[in-house]
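re: that chain from earlier
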Amino acid sequence: MEINRKALIDFVKNEAENCNVFVIGDVMLDKYFYGEVTRISPEAPVPVTRVTRTKETLGGAANVAHNLALMKANTLISGFIGRDYHGESLSAQFSSRGIDTRGLIATDAPTTTKLRVIGGHQQMLRLDFEDALPADDKATNALIKFVKKEIKNHPPRSAIILSDYGKGICTEKTCTEIIEAAKKYKVPLIVDPKGNDWSKYSGADFITPNLKELNEVQKTPAKNNDSEVERAARYAMRKFHIGGMVATRSECGLTLVRSREVINIPTKAQEVFDVSGAGDTVIAIFALAIAGGIAPSSAAYLANLAASVVVARLGTYAISNEELSEALKKEMKNIKRA
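^ sequence. v structure.
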């Protein structure tokens, strides 16, 4: 696979800001309590964590939007938030990053929030605040109406992301109507899937499962090797009428499968601290590149490189255009040395 890294650096540094990506999905707030553990509680056999700092950041579909915003893309987010403190925090964080929040719909359900307690570099506990039931018809119809209007009026160099975390937004009705609108107005649409029935994603241009998610829709689960991943990808693409697949394979990298193309991209050798949010980075960077007219093979390479940066960080992390540019430059130097 021939990759023009100089062209990709130019795209990341100068052209990403001219791209427009619309993210629809399950937005979340990620909260972190960092501390040190020096003893066991006298009340129960659990470690006592002395909290030294806290952090709130964007998670789920919100993290996808965060990656795009740090890449300086024009980013629009649509999803459900609660009328609560977490919803206010989420909205404020979107605004502070320049993310367009016109598509957020307030509901009576709590804002999906994940609270993690970290002792040293070890995650010790996670608490989830959520109501994963589908939203009521009023909220769903309001979201679909907004999304379809935005798709109709989309600017040049656009792409759409459906980020499904199984928290209630990506129902069959919502996905079907959004995908139909995207096809009508010829806007590329990429799905990050959830669950074992991908029929609601029928007609999507690309889907970006990890190997575990891909195996959930197989009759015979695939092992993590090139031929079996390709077989599994083609089976899912035929069964659910999906144009192409970007399958992430953990330590084995990433595989792009299209009707007449298969590309296996190895991962970058490095220490992995945390895979949280790596899938968000992959779909964000891939969709951004597709919006910018980059070939899918180069878009997949760029997404894989971005993910290699993210997994070396602790906690949910979004990559910036400066970091991705530096990673590309480092790749070029390594190739010259070789």
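The CA atoms of residues 49 and 199 lie 45 Å apart.
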